[in-house]
Each structure stands twice: as C-alpha cells, then as structure tokens.
Design goal:
The complex is a heterodimer.
Chain A lengths: L7 E10 L2 E11 L4 E5 L6 H9 L6 E6 L2 E2 L5 H6 L2 E4 L11 H7 L7 H6 L4 H13 L15 H14 L4 E5 L7 H14 L4 E5 L3 H7 L2 E6 L2 E6 L1 H5 L2 H8 L2
Parallel strand pairs in A: 3-8, 3-9, 6-7, 7-8
Antiparallel strand pairs in A: 1-2, 1-4, 4-5, 9-10
Helix pairs in contact in A: 3-6, 5-6
Chain B lengths: L1 H10 L1 H18 L2 H26 L7 H20 L15 H5 L15 H25 L4 H21 L1 H4 L10 E2 L2 E2 L3 H27 L1 H11 L1 H5 L5 H27 L9 H14 L4 H21 L4 H15 L3 H22 L25 H4 L13
Antiparallel strand pairs in B: 1-2
Helix pairs in contact in B: 2-9, 3-9, 3-12, 3-13, 3-14, 4-6, 4-12, 6-12, 9-10, 9-12, 10-12, 13-14, 13-16, 14-15
Classes of the chains: A alpha/beta, B mainly alpha.
C-alpha cells in the first residue's frame, strides 16, 4: 500500500470470525492532531477496529499503517512502544496499587525484565507522575488505592496511564461511560487539552458529547463505514438517520 | 532511631529479622542435633516455598511442578558427591572400579560422558544453578509465548514432573533409579556426616535462605515486583502499556526454579541422598501447600508454612500412622477455606491491629478513629474505610494489597 502523510492509514482492513465479517474492507485515515470520533450501533465493529489497530485481534486481510509502518504483524508491546496507546471500555487499572504506582508503572522506561529490575523512581519520574495526575484531576489522590476511586476517576486514571507513555495516537473506548454530568464536562475539557500534539480516536455514544469534542465523525455500520465528515454533515445524512440516529 | 523504625516497617525487614533470629539463634540453642538437622531439611523446602511466593503469589502463575527443579538441583549435587564417594580405592570390589555402584550393578563399564563435568565442584555448583533454570526457561518460554496459562500451565508442570520421574526411574543405570543416589560422604574430602559438618551446613542453609528472601524482597520492591502484581491483576493493561508480559512470567518461573534448585542441593548436603520420590507429583503439590499455609503473598510466611506443615507431618505420622495423610489434607483444606491468605494473612488481620491499637493509645488522643476495630485486611472490593488501610500493609510494598487472584 502507498505511503501517506496520515498518522494512521487503515486500508482495506478485513477480519472475519468463523465467516462473520466483523470488519469488512474498511478504509480509514486519521490526520496528525486530529480528534476523530467513531459512532455506530452496537455490533458495528467499533471496538473490534481498535482491537485490530492495537494488535489485540489479528487482521484477516488489509493493512494498518502507523506513521507508514505496517502494524498488522507486530507484537502488541511493540505496537505500544511505537506510539499507540489504547484505553479499554471498562476501566482497566491496577486496583491493588496506589494511583502513584499505577502511573509510575506506565512510565515508558525500564520496559525489559532487567530494565525493570534496575528502574529507579527518580525526581524526573515523580515530577512526570505529578504533572499527569494534575492533568487528570487526581493530583491530590496519589496515595489512594486505585480500587477506591470512583468510576469516573478510574476512567481518568487509565487515560493518565496512557498519557505517561506520551503516545502519538491515543484510542479511547467509551471514555465517559458511567460518568456524571460534571465528570463528562471535565473529560471533554481533558480530551480537548490532550489532543494537542497527538491524534485521538474516541468511540462514543453520547451525541452531545460527540458534538462538543469531535473534529470529524466516522459512522460505522456492520463492519463498514457508513458516513464520514463533520458532525453536521453526518447528522443530516439520511443513511445515518436510518440506521443509527433515528427519525 | 525513628528512621530505622520506619525503614523496617516500610521494607518489611522487621519480619525478616525476626525470622533470621529464630532460625539462626533460637533453633540451634533449643534443639538437639537430630531435631536441628530435621529443621534444616524442612528449611530446604522453604526455598521452594519462597520461590512459589514470587511465582504464584506475585506472578499469579501456579506451578505444580517445583519438585522438578528441587530434584534436579539435588541430583546435580548428588552426582558430584557420588563420584567423589566412588574412587577406585573404595569401589575395588566392583567389576569396574571408579564408577558409582549403581552403574556397576547395571552392567555399565564406563562413566557416561555427561557425568564427567561432575568430577569438578565448581562445574557441579554451576550445574546446580543453571541446569534447572535452563529447563525452566525452555518450558516457560514455550508456554508463555503461546499464552498458555492458569490451569493449563499447572497441568503441564505436573506432566513435566511425571516425565522426569519416569525418566529417572527408567534410566536406572545412569540415575540410580528408584533408589536414587545414596551413600554420599564427602565434598573435596570434607566429611558431611559429622556433627560439626551438620552444624556448618545448617547455618549455610539458613544463611542462603535469608539471602534468598532478601533477594526476593528486593525484586518485590523494584518495578518488576509492581509489574508482576499488575500482571496478575490486569494482564492486558500491562501488555498494552508496552511490556512483553510473557518474558516477565518467564523470569518469575526461572527465579522460582533456581531457588528450588538451591534448596534441592542443600537437601542433599544435609540429608545425604536424592531420589525420585522428591521429584514427583506428590512432593510438588506438598510444596504448594507450604506456600499456601504460610501465605502466598508473604516470603517470611512461606518459611513458617514449610516449617509448620513439616512439623505437623512429622507429629501426625508419629502419632497417627494410619490417619496422618487425611489430617494433612484437612489442614490444607481448612487453611484454604478459612484463611485464604495463610498464616501471614491471619497475622495481618488479627494480630497486627491489636498490636497497633496498643501502640496508638499512649501516643495521642487526637487520632480517635475506631477503624482498628474493623479487621483492616478485608478485601478492597468491599470498600473498607481509608483509616484501616495503613495497618493492613506491611509485608507488601507501598500501596499493595494481596487479596485477589
């Protein structure tokens, strides 16, 4: 496939589970510094798409290029190291560890076995943990065990763990699910801030939230792209209204 | 003084110190040589239990095949001692003098090539450490790369146990078969059977055990320890944070194997023989019981577990020869059902809070939290109040609680 200027170029991507095509010849490009929101009905293949990009699921065909490097055959941890961070749908944090430890473990140094043995928590690491914790409004809760955080705070913590790695592409699967109104607002602001200097892909269902944050919206349906463009354009697309938004 | 105190509390060194005092000072002063030698034997199992704390408690990988590594370590040591005991002078009645007796009985007329390195002590000691670790590396690399885990991995370790046992028993001429390798006498001319040697070996064993615990403690407090716990909790999150999860499990498995091998070698030195009965499935499961009874999250607890279960085994088998296996099983089931975190967990939840309370009282009336009445080691998920937390963690690094998985 051709080389492009896009951060992420997904071309002709297909994955089938026992003959069922969860993703069907999908092509998608994401720009540098772009905040893309993917919407679509349940079972459209949104989460599967993220799974494919981060290597959790292997593609049956097609290509995924990140900064013009092919990702489809790479090991998961190498995909992460090349700069792709992924947040899971349910908050996936280390409940038994403190907030500080959660963030510290995500610091991208000492990633090999013996590197981890020799890793020291230097002032630099501490400063970075503090600044990320401030960013996600957990600056005062560093010593709290992560399991005791509220649901919304857990979501933020996981985003913070990704920020520690300074990824160039950040993929968030339903980041505001289960959040209060106030928490949603804060998360919206957080996303606006963190998409500076990196590309972000967000899967979301809440249309008001999508309207507020999206640069561009992609609508998926049955493993294919139904429509793509600005929120206004997508919202008035008759096909989208038909299968997703409703009349 | 206060800084030493806080360091002791933070790093969990206080409990290591107490353990060291008990096995280095109290036991030798209160026991006769026969009992002390017995304790020495139990403490060689403690190496395996300590390894299991790292592998099972921290890494979340249950191995039911640690006997393989204990046995291999032991066999490496025994092979060296057997060769030294089989000099041409003492074996001159054999048809081929100078080879181990069991080889002669099996019509083998020449020392096999792979026995040759065991003529040299440094090579033998190297083999004690490296051969089991290498085997562990091969097994675990093959398994964890393919994401085999949990019950499946445990079953495979059992299979390895069985294979090795069958191999040793079947290759009688090269391994000594069911009888194992016996009649071990000296190391470089130093007789290991004298009273003095038994004391020396006991203290060597105790020293190595403490050193192993300190090494493991250091690993637990490093980022690697945190990662092991994180993996046990949320493996995918660790993988998608840029870590090669399988290699960390391989490391934990190799570490546990090497510790077991040291234990096996010390067993041979103190007990004077090695046989397939220490390799098989039953001893491997027993070793898991030691760690479970002691508390699989506590290095020190694992040692107490090994001691207690073995004392129990000796006592039960002397007092109730017909029933003792059932009593042992009851002990295990009871511990797992009633206190899943073992003796160490029991200490954390019942003894610690009371000690803390006594200490707090004269200190200040300001901190009047009733939290120490609540058993603080209740699992996190029940959302225990913050106040009780600091009491609950000592044997674990900062901000860590060992309840799940």
């Amino acid at each position: 496939m051709s080389n492009t200027d896009f951060v992420l170029a997904v071309e002709d991507l297909t994955v089938s589970f026992d003959g069922f095509k969860a993703i069907d010849a999908l092509t998608l490009y994401v720009d540098r510094g772009e905040l893309r929101v993917i919407i679509g009905p349940n079972g459209a293949g949104k989460t599967t798409l993220l799974d494919l990009i981060c290597g959790k699921t292997r593609a049956s065909g097609g290509s995924i290029k990140f900064k013009n490097h092919e990702m489809t055959k790479m090991a998961e941890h190498k995909i992460v190291r090349s700069g792709i961070g992924r947040k899971f749908q349910t908050p996936s944090i280390y409940e038994n560890l403190s907030v500080f430890k959660n963030l510290e473990v995500s610091f991208p140094r000492g990633r090999s076995v013996f590197g981890a043995l020799g890793f020291r928590c230097t002032e630099e690491v501490k400063a970075r943990v503090q600044s990320v914790a401030d960013e996600i409004s957990l600056g005062d809760s560093l010593d709290v065990e992560a399991g005791l955080l509220s649901h919304g705070q857990k979501q933020w913590l996981e985003i913070g763990m990704l920020l520690m790695q300074e990824p160039e592409l950040l993929m968030l699967d339903e980041p505001i699910a289960g959040m209060s109104v106030r928490e949603r607002e804060l998360t919206g602001e957080l996303l606006q801030r963190i998409c500076k200097g990196r590309s972000v892909i967000v899967i979301e269902h809440d249309m008001d939230f999508v309207k507020r944050i999206a640069h561009k919206v992609t609508v998926m349906h049955q493993g294919k792209i139904l429509a793509e463009g600005s929120m206004d354009k997508v919202q008035n697309d008759p096909k989208v209204i038909d299968v997703y938004l409703g009349h | 003084m206060d800084s030493i105190k806080s360091w002791l509390a933070r790093s969990g060194m206080g409990s290591v110190l107490i353990l060291a005092l008990i096995i280095v000072v109290v036991f030798p002063l209160t026991m006769d040589l026969f009992r002390l030698n017995l304790v020495g034997k139990y403490l060689t199992y403690a190496f395996v239990a300590v390894g299991l704390v790292m592998l099972w408690g921290y890494g979340g990988v249950l191995s039911l095949g640690q006997g393989v590594f204990f046995g291999l370590g032991g066999y490496m040591m025994a092979m060296f001692m057997k060769l030294e005991a089989s000099d041409p002078e003492t074996t001159k009645i054999q048809s081929t003098p100078g080879i181990p007796d069991f080889m002669d009985w099996n019509q083998i007329t020449e020392l096999p090539l792979w026995w040759e390195p065991f003529r040299h002590l440094p090579l033998a000691l190297l083999a004690v450490l490296l051969v089991p670790t290498l085997l562990a590396f091969i097994i675990s690399f093959a398994m964890f790369r393919r994401r085999v885990g949990g019950v499946y991995f445990a079953i495979i370790t059992q299979a390895v146990c069985l294979i090795l046992t069958v191999l040793i028993v079947g290759q009688q001429g090269y391994t000594g078969g069911v009888n194992g390798i016996t009649d071990l006498k000296t190391i470089l001319g130093w007789d290991t059977r004298t009273d003095e040697a038994k004391y020396v070996l006991y203290f060597l064993n105790a020293g190595l055990l403490i050193a192993s615990i300190l090494l493991c403690r250091w690993i637990q407090l490093s980022k690697l320890g945190t990662l092991l716990l994180a993996m046990r909790d949320k493996e995918d999150r660790v993988r998608f944070s840029g870590y090669d999860v399988s290699m960390f499990k391989v490391f934990a498995f190799c570490l546990a194997a090497m510790l077991s091998a040291i234990g096996g070698a010390m067993f041979v030195l103190q007990v004077g023989f090695m046989s397939p009965s220490l390799v098989g499935i039953v001893p491997s499961i027993e070793m898991v019981i030691f760690a479970a009874v002691g508390g699989r999250m506590s290095l020190v607890g694992a040692v107490y577990g090994a001691l207690l279960v073995n004392f129990g085994k000796t006592y039960f088998s002397e007092s109730f020869p017909d029933l003792w296996l059932f009593l042992m099983a009851a002990l295990f089931i009871g511990v797992v059902l009633a206190f899943p975190n073992g003796l160490a967990g029991l200490y954390e939840s019942h003894v610690k809070p009371r000690l803390g309370k006594r200490k707090d009282k004269p200190a200040a009336g300001t901190d009047s939290t009733p939290s120490s009445d609540v058993p603080p080691a209740t699992p996190l998920h029940s959302g225990a109040p913050h106040g009780g937390k600091p009491l609950a963690r000592t044997a674990l690094p900062d901000g860590v609680q060992g309840t799940s998985a």
